[in-house]
Each structure stands twice: as C-alpha cells, then as structure tokens.
Design goal:
Coagulation Factor XIII, Chain A, domain 1; mainly beta; Jelly Rolls; 508 residues; 39% strand; binds zinc ion; 4-stranded antiparallel β-sheet; TIM Barrel; 11% helix
C-alpha cells in the first residue's frame, strides 16, 4: 500500500509493514512525480537483504532515485540495488547515493531498458549494523513521463549559476555514429566519446552537444563522462537524419522517429512536437547543402513543414565551412535562414562544427568548437542553454576565437529589446540600437536588414581592434522587419554573426 503526491507537497503517512515503514502522499496526476520510501533498520537486519518495494505506474519514462541513511557514525552500512518486475536492474553497493534508469540510458552500475509498470524494489544489502543500533533510510523516487517531460540532462545542478555568455558547439559525432579517430596503434576506429569531450575542453568550450545520427546509444556513456567533465556541460543530442534533411534534436533522451518515408512527411511536424514534449529544441541542419544524388538527404527539402515548430537553424556548419573555406558563398546556410526570417519565423541562428574526428587536422575537417555558438544564458545548465537559444540572444563566433563577441540592444520609447527579441514601435517612433563589439580585430561591422526593413545606416562601421559601440536608428515601419549584424576582418572574412532584433508595428 502506497500513497503518492505531486512534487514536494508530501504529507507523509507512515505505516509499518514487515518491520519497514513507507511514506508517500496522495494521487493527483496520472504520473506522480515523486514518491518517498522510508524505513527503519535494526540489529536484526545485520547481514541480510531488505526489500523496499514501490509501484511504477504506466507511462513512466525515467526513474531517478536518491538514497540516504542514518547511522554511518555507528558503522552502519547499507548497500543498494534495483529490481524491476523482471529482475535485477543493477547494483551500486555503497558507491552511489543517486542514480537514474530509463529506456535508453542509465547511470553507471545500472542498465537501460524498458520502464515496466508494476512492482519494482530497491534491494538494501546490510553488511553491518550493530546489535542495539537503529538506522533510518530514505529513498526519494522521482518519476518522469507524460504530456511534458521536464528537461533532465545529466546534471542536477548548474555548472555555473551566473547569467553569462556561454560558448559551445551544438553539433558533433563520435563512434556512436560515424565519428572516427586513430587508435593508439594508428588504426581507424569508431572514436570513443571521451575524445570529443576532451577536444571541447581543450577548445575552452562551456558546453557541447553530441548529436549522433538517429541513435541514442551515446547517452549512457555521456552520463558517465559528465561526472568527470564537470566543468563542461554535455547536452544529449541527436541528428535526426532523414532522406529529406537533417535536424538536430538537442536535449531529448527518449526515442525519436526518423523514418520519414515519402508517404509520411507530415511526421516532420510530429517530430518537432515530440522534441518539444521532451523539453528539447529542434534545429534545421545545414539547409544550404545540395540534395539528391550530389548529397543524399543533406539539404532540407521536406515539404509542408510548419517552420514555426522549429527553434533554430544551423547557419554555420563546420563541415560545409571546411568544404568551401567560408560560412558564405556556395552552400551557405545563411540565405535559407534569412528567407525564413523574412517569412516571419523567428528562428535562432546557431552553429556547430559537425566534427567527425577530434584529431582532425585542418586539411580534413574543422575541429570541435569551429564555429562556436555563444549563448546568453541565465546559468550554465541544460535548461539554461536551451532557454538561451529560444530567447535568441545568441551569436556565432565563426572562427572559434574563444573571446570575440557581439551583442545588440534596442532602446525604444517604452521598452528595451535584446538580440532575439521584438521591439514594438508606434507610427513616428523609433528605437536606438546599440551594437557592442568586444575582443575583436580590426575590420568592420556590417548591418544586415530583412526584406521589409526601411532604409537604415550605421553611425560608423569601422572597427580598430578595440572594444567599440556602434549605433543605428530603427524607425517604425508598416510591416514587421528584422535587423542584425555581421563583423568582418580587414580582408572581409566573416568573423561574427549576430541574431536579429525584430521590429513590429504597434498600430492601435
Ligand atoms: Zn548532417
Ligand atoms: Zn552531423
């Protein structure tokens, strides 16, 4: 007999059952989010195994357990394992106080696999409890699943709790898909994931998303590595790779459909909705690549797609940049992005190296972190970075300089709009937009305007290598428009790409 409740609003009901006591609270949702098991142990439990059963309802996708007990000062020891209705799911002994299991990933010591509804139990092994000693254990069991799955990722707490600009790479592959590198003896092998993470660390990135083609086999490995790479946020990702285009699903961990046959095309929208249910973001990858026999599935040619369901477009892809030695020109992804912006979709421009080899020398491909995407986030956590992309206060450091930055803010008569946000203007009103370029080199700022923008010019476009602010006036216009900037070096090479500020008429 167990009682459930949502969240932390637990009123604990203790009852005795075979010498154990359980507490929980009352059912309020088809998938209760949390359950607390407590129990007492005494000298008679010395060198025995004690079961702590709990019911897993239908629809649960992930179970996370946090375990604690008293009496360590009296040499009480409680080891821990988990059984699902079919048998042993793992044993961590005295090594872990929290762990998670899901269909596709699990903490070290535990096995991924279906989350079957029914009776599961924690198995408590008690190698030592003294004769006249009592101890209490508490297991907090958190269920995830249902209509909306909260963002989980591999870490509970942010790596850095401060709002800041955070630098990362949204696109990389390891040996879990088609990433290769040399073994110690020089053989080409599917590259272990830690090599890509090490490359990200050496590139001074704050975060990296490992985006394997369609599979989810990397998640357990990344979970294990995240504990070691605790200064580098690892975001689970997948490159949903179809015959009609590639899309990065960043954040989700449960399965995603990728078999988009020609008679199933509306499924692109279903995919976008499923990514959102799982708390993730979805981006269109390298849309400027060719399609057909030149490059099968590379360009984005899926018809009848609801672009408002996307969050981002990969406007700088390391693979393409290596091919054409630029983020511009043939195969550039920027024109496709800007045409979607002109059609009124507010999609954040992001970038990714698309690294397939962490050792790559520049003659073969660009390294991890080229390009770098720089996200203004409330904290360095998975939800912080994904919310930052959703907000659009993001720019791309094309060369992965580790330090150059560009930001924009519009000051209107009533409100302020950051990069990625909307400024509403009434007739005859205007906003003053400040462009802030830092740690950059000599060159110039270039204003890029959407199709329906009025004529606007910059106060001064020159950059002399020092931190500079440049301004322009954005006036009211009858149609919505957007404005953003590029930063170029003295040879005209694209160095930084900003996201737009959007201007819309506020006509009452
Ligand atoms: Zn791709
Ligand atoms: Zn890729």
């Amino acid at each position: 007999m167990l009682f459930y409740s949502r969240g932390l609003a637990v009123f604990l009901i203790a009852l005795s059952l075979f010498g154990l006591s359980f507490s929980g609270a009352a059912q309020a949702d088809p998938i209760p989010s949390e359950l607390v098991l407590t129990g007492k142990l005494s000298g008679k439990d010395h060198q025995t195994y004690v079961k702590a059963p709990f019911e897993v309802p239908e629809g649960v996708e992930r179970i996370t357990i946090e375990f604690s007990y008293t009496g360590k000062d009296q040499r009480t020891v409680v080891d821990l394992g988990l059984y699902d209705p079919n048998g042993l799911r793992g044993w961590s002994g005295g090594n872990k106080t929290s762990f998670t299991v899901a269909r596709n990933d699990a903490s070290p010591s535990y096995l991924p696999g279906p989350i079957l509804p029914g009776t599961w139990h924690l198995l408590l092994g008690i190698p030592n409890i003294r004769k006249n000693v009592e101890a209490t254990y508490t297991a907090r069991v958190t269920f995830t699943g249902g209509a909306a799955v909260p963002i989980t990722g591999f870490l509970k707490a942010p790596i850095d709790a401060k709002p800041n600009w955070y630098r990362g790479d949204f696109h990389s592959h390891t040996g879990h898909s088609d990433g290769n590198c040399n073994s110690l003896s020089g053989k080409r092998i599917p590259c272990p994931a830690f090599r890509t993470l090490e490359a990200a660390r050496l590139a001074n990135l704050n975060f990296i998303s490992v985006t394997e083609h369609n599979t989810v086999s990397h998640h357990s490995v990344l979970r294990e590595l995240q504990a070691y790479y605790d200064t580098l946020l690892i975001i689970p990702g997948r490159e949903i790779t179809t015959f009609f285009g590639h899309m990065n699903a960043i954040g989700p961990m449960a399965p995603l459909e990728f078999q988009l046959g020609s008679n199933q095309l509306p499924i692109v929208d279903d995919l976008s909705k499923e990514v959102k249910r799982q708390g993730g973001i979805i981006s269109i990858n390298h849309p400027g690549m060719p399609s057909g026999e030149d490059c099968m599935g590379c360009g984005f040619v899926a018809p009848n797609v609801d672009y408002s369901l996307f969050d981002a477009v990969e406007i700088a892809n390391g693979g393409t940049m290596h091919l054409v030695k630029s983020a511009e020109g043939i195969f550039s992804h920027i024109p496709k992005w800007e045409s979607l912006l002109n059609d009124g979709f507010r999609l954040t421009g992001i970038g990714g190296s698309d690294s397939h080899d962490p050792d790559a020398s520049l003659d073969r491909q660009l390294p991890v972190g080229q390009p770098t995407t720089v996200v203004y986030a409330r904290e360095l956590s998975q939800s912080g970075i994904l919310d930052g992309v959703r907000s659009g206060r993001v720019f791309i450091d094309v060369t992965g300089s580790s330090r150059a930055m560009v930001d924009m803010v519009a000051k209107g008569p009533r409100t302020i709009a950051n990069m990625g946000s909307v400024m509403a203007l009434r007739p005859r009103e205007s906003a003053s937009v400040m462009i802030d370029v830092r740690n950059s080199m000599e060159g110039r700022v270039e204003l890029v305007l959407g199709r329906d923008a009025p004529s606007i010019t910059l106060s001064d476009s020159r950059l002399d290598g020092r931190d500079r602010q440049r301004t322009f006036i954005a006036p009211f216009a009858a149609k919505p428009y957007w404005a953003r900037v590029n930063v170029r070096d003295t040879s005209g090479r694209l160095i930084l790409i900003s996201n737009p500020i959007y201007f819309k008429p506020d006509v009452r």
